Amino acid sequence: YVGNEEWWDVAIIDARNQDSLSRTFLGISGFSYGLSTQDTILLVGTGGSFKLYNVSTPALPVYLCGVSLPDWILGITPAGSVAFVVTSDSGVYTIDISNLAQPQITGRMRRRVQTQTGVYNGVLNGQHMFVPYSTGVLIVDKSQTDSLREEVFFPTGGSAVRVAIKDSLVFVASGLAGLWVLDISNPQ
Question: Fewest CB atoms within 10 A around its CB: which of 19, 130, 133, 153?
Answer without folding.
Answer: 19
